[in-house]
Amino acid sequence: MTVRAAVILSTQIAVAVGVLCVLAGNPWAVAVLAAGGAFAGTVAFARSVIG
């Protein structure tokens, strides 16, 4: 996995988490915080896969 692919994947997952949080009825602030956490977690995972 390239670094570019890892960033794109992380961004897509963060957007999906944010949208799902808003659709579940949470405030925007909660959705942004959840998306940030998802982005950070995905980046950490992708870094371990890249090596």
Structure commentary:
- It is a single chain.
- With 51 residues, the protein is mainly alpha-helical.
- Helix content is 86%, strand content 0%.
- The chain contains two helices and no strands.
- The protein has helices at 3-23, 28-50.
- Helix 1 (3-23) runs antiparallel to helix 2.
- It is elongated and about 35 Å long.
- The relative contact order is 0.22.
What are the main properties of this structure?
51 residues; 2 helices; elongated; mainly alpha
Could you provide a short overview of the structure?
The chain is mostly helical and 51 residues long. It is built from two helices and no strands.
Largest sheet, in brief, is: none
State the order of secondary-structure elements, H for helix, E for strand: HH
Structural class by secondary-structure content? mainly alpha
Quote the average pLDDT. Answer: 93
* Percent of residues in β-strands: under 5%
Total strand count, please? 0
User: Distance N terminus to C terminus?
Assistant: 9 Å
> How much helical structure, as a percent, in the residues?
over 70%
Structure annotation, total helices: 2
Low-pLDDT windows of residues: none
| Structural Rg | 12 Å
Report the principal-axis shape. Answer: elongated
